[in-house]
Specification:
455 residues; alpha+beta; Thrombin, subunit H; Pdz3 Domain; 3 domains; 10 helices; 27 strands
Length: 455
């Protein structure tokens, strides 16, 4: 079974890479230089549920990627990047940091569209034609690998039409171009500098492992269709015929007496769907839609989604030893939510219901602590006894042995004082709490986030 991992990256988790990318060919460096300004790093906070009863949910910093597809500030990324996100920031290659807002997320594809508002046109990429790809074609990836910043790598198309059992419409591009956690939502680029895929997942049998030469991207033709669909509020809903298909194998072809392999067999029918109303049956073999044959069940499903609602679909089927023609009226996909798929609800509510856990364990300063950490005998404040590995405090550079002197200008003499300052800032809906931290012989003010900026 595949062990597939989304490519978002949690800060400060070491994930080694075990695969080497090919060398860049002549001209590819120019492509990277031209395209890189349109690729963004995406940073966001998500909330990890409490590990123990009574504990608060904990903020975790997540890094991913995206790219500008329209100079007005339209950014494409993966849906799993924004699921549960508590605010989004797009970081451009020149260092500019811009708040990004979610416009819409796809329901049936790992795709989301963000918007940044700036006072100038942005460099943008173009969609390429993923249907023209062949195994062996050279490709490039650009993205925020491991949260280190924008990085580029080179590789080839390893395979096409991979089924990851992620959705009925899977047709992933497989590549050996180096991609890692943090590449989610970044572009897979052809030799023309056009986007022919969106990097989405990697394969590794080791749950904590990095890239081993097998990565997957959503094809650009699928992504561009969904992008235009999502951005057009008047766009018709996805087409639906109301049957479930499975691939037609050579063995099933022999069993059903179909003279050639290919097509897809109906394995289930919705009793209220157009296929049932057109008298289609379980066991019918779908060979063409509107005169076009497809390679497998997923390809037929993709073709059906793109059919116009209300118009007839001309189906060629194999039934009872002969070929037959059937017309079915295309209906709208049931329970379709044009703004579905966003998980801002429950996790955000949990976050806002109580102050976040900073990831620090605090304690009164004891004599043993002063000896252990070399603290001045007269130093007042609250000791940081421990810091969790993937929390905001660790990202800010806070370490065991540091001492909190004040919060928001008020002295902190006990863990309860600090908890009170966090609670008060939370109730006042401040975006940050200013914390004065003694680190060895240095005093530093650090901003500890309380709520999402702009919320």
């Amino acid at each position: 079974m595949y062990k597939l991992f989304a490519l978002t990256f949690t800060a400060l988790v070491a994930l080694p890479s075990f695969a080497n990318a090919r060398s860049m060919e002549a001209g590819e460096a120019e492509i990277v230089q031209r395209d890189e300004p349109a690729v963004v790093s995406i940073s966001t906070w998500k909330v990890h549920p409490a590990s123990e009863p009574g504990e608060a949910p904990r903020r975790v910093k997540i890094f991913a990627s995206g790219f500008v597809m329209d100079p007005s500030g339209i950014i494409i990324t993966n849906k799993h990047v924004i699921d549960g996100a508590l605010g989004l920031t797009a970081v451009f290659s020149n260092g500019d940091r811009v708040h990004a807002r979610l416009l819409v997320a796809a329901e049936m594809l790992d795709l989301a569209i963000l918007k940044v508002d700036v006072d100038h046109p942005l460099p943008a990429l173009k969609w390429g034609n993923s249907d023209a790809l062949q195994v062996g074609n050279p490709v490039l990836t650009i993205g925020n690998q491991l949260g280190l910043g924008i990085s580029a790598s080179a590789g080839i198309i390893s395979a096409l039409n991979r089924d990851l059992q992620d959705s009925p419409f899977d047709s992933y591009i497989q590549t050996d171009a180096t991609i890692n956690h943090g590449n989610s939502g970044g572009p897979l680029i052809d030799r023309n500098g056009d986007v022919i895929g969106i990097n989405t997942a990697l394969y590794n049998p080791n749950e904590n492992g990095g890239f081993i030469g097998i990565g997957f991207a959503i094809p650009s033709n699928t992504a561009s269709f969904v992008e235009h669909f999502l951005l057009n509020p008047d766009h018709p809903k996805p087409g639906w015929l109301g049957f479930t298909l499975q691939d037609m194998t050579a063995e099933l072809s022999q069993a059903f007496g179909v003279p050639q392999t290919g097509g897809a067999i109906i394995s289930a029918l919705d009793p209220s769907g157009p296929a049932s109303q057109a008298s289609l049956r379980v066991g019918d073999v779908l060979q063409t839609i509107n005169g076009t044959s497809e390679s497998d069940a997923r390809a037929f499903n993709r073709a059906i989604v793109m059919l116009k609602v209300g118009e007839p679909a001309h189906l060629t089927i194999w039934r009872d030893g002969k070929q037959q023609d059937v017309d079915a009226s295309v209906a709208a996909w049931p329970n379709y939510m044009p703004y579905g798929g966003m998980m801002h609800g429950a996790m955000a509510e949990a976050m806002m219901a109580r102050p976040p856990d900073s990831g620090m364990t605090l304690a009164a300063i004891s004599d043993d602590d002063r000896k252990k950490f070399g603290l001045d005998p007269t130093l007042d404040g609250v000791l940081v006894a421990s810091v969790e590995a993937d929390c905001e405090a660790r990202e800010l550079g806070i370490e065991p042995g540091d001492v909190i002197k004040a919060a928001q200008g008020e002295p902190v003499a006990s863990p309860a004082d600090f908890a009170h300052a966090m609670r008060e800032a939370h109730e006042q809906r401040r975006p940050y709490l200013a914390v004065l931290m003694q680190k060895k012989q240095q005093l530093r003010w650090l901003p500890l986030s309380i709520i999402v900026a702009g919320s």
